[in-house]
Amino acid sequence: MSTKCLINSTCVFFYALRRHNGTLAADHAQQRLHEILAEEPALRTCCGEGPPASMAQEEERMGAALVHAFEATDREILMRCRMENGRGGATGVVIVRIGGSLYAAHCGDSRAVMCRGGEPLRLTEDHKPNLPRERKRVEGLGGRVDFARCWRVIVDPGDGRPASGLAVSRSFGDPDFKEPLHLVIATPDVMREQLTEEDAFIVLASDGLWDVMDDKYACDLVAMQLAQAASMGSDGQVAATLAAEALVRASLDAGTMDNVTAVVGLLSWN
Question: What is the crossing angle of helices 52-84 and 24-38, to 10°?
């Protein structure tokens, strides 16, 4: 599992990646996703605030920038897979804050949840193969979605490729599900949320956490940990780290059957 947090004078950017079938896809995305996104002019020219018309334009430009960064990163990963005979993949969720605007982009089932006024606000929708729009897209391309312990995109054996199933409908890498048929895609869903003074923090976590914990419990646990850290005089970075570690421990204690990671990003209004 990989995470990254970058801050500059223009924006705050952080993300979480969850690997499967090896480390190639997650490692490459960790190295390159933020670099490709940083080259997008929208990150330097958007300010995150303004009248509705200008914000609509900014949202369109930032959406295009995030889509391009995800897809360009995926093309590089697929090229490496061909060169290195790799088959690995990764899911990813990205948060970009520019001024008063928060953008969430993701492919796969890593999820972002924001705490607003003490209540969870889900920023992403898990890309599961049985999600109606995802299933329609996969089957429309001649693919198959079936249940094998969980819902999966199925690839039948052929041309030296083994039969396999993938429990997400979007991801980085996973060449068996993209060549020759592009059944699984890396194109992210992108949404923008205008921040308010009630917005306290964001939780990014892999499916290993969300399999055993709902959004509300995660937000309540983080809020409790942050309050405890504040009472002990811990700074924000330490408090966020302790809260993320508490989420991971709670997931393991709840019996998660998958690997798990969590990132907590604080939204400071001081």
Answer: 140
Amino acid at residue number 75 = R
Q: Is pLDDT above 60 for 6?
A: no
Quick one: pLDDT at residue 159? 64
Look-up of token digits 């039948």? 156
Cα angle for residues 23, 251, 32 (degrees, 5° grid): 30
Average pLDDT over residues 226-241: 90
164-184 pLDDT tens trace: 899 999 999 999 999 889 999
Whether 173 contacts 77, CB under 8 Å? yes
Q: What is the reported pLDDT for 269?
A: 53
Q: From start to end of 75-130, where are the E strands?
A: 89-98, 101-107, 111-116, 119-122
CA distance 195 to 15: 18
Domain coordinates in residue numbering, the chain: 2-266
Token representation of residue 38: 């940083």
Rg of the chain taking only CA atoms, in angstroms: 19
Exposure b/e, 15-24, CB count within 10 A at least 16 = b: bbbbbbbbeb
For CA atoms 242, 247, 253, 259, give the dihedral sign.
negative
Whether pLDDT at 244 is above 70: yes
- CA dihedral 23→27→28→32, nearest 10 degrees, is 160
Q: What percent of the chain has pLDDT over 90?
A: 74
- Show the 3-state SS of 124-187: CCCCCCCCHHHHHHHHHCCCEEEECCCEEEEECCECCECCEEECCCECEECHHHCCCCCCCECC
| CATH class of domain segment(s) 2-266 | alpha beta
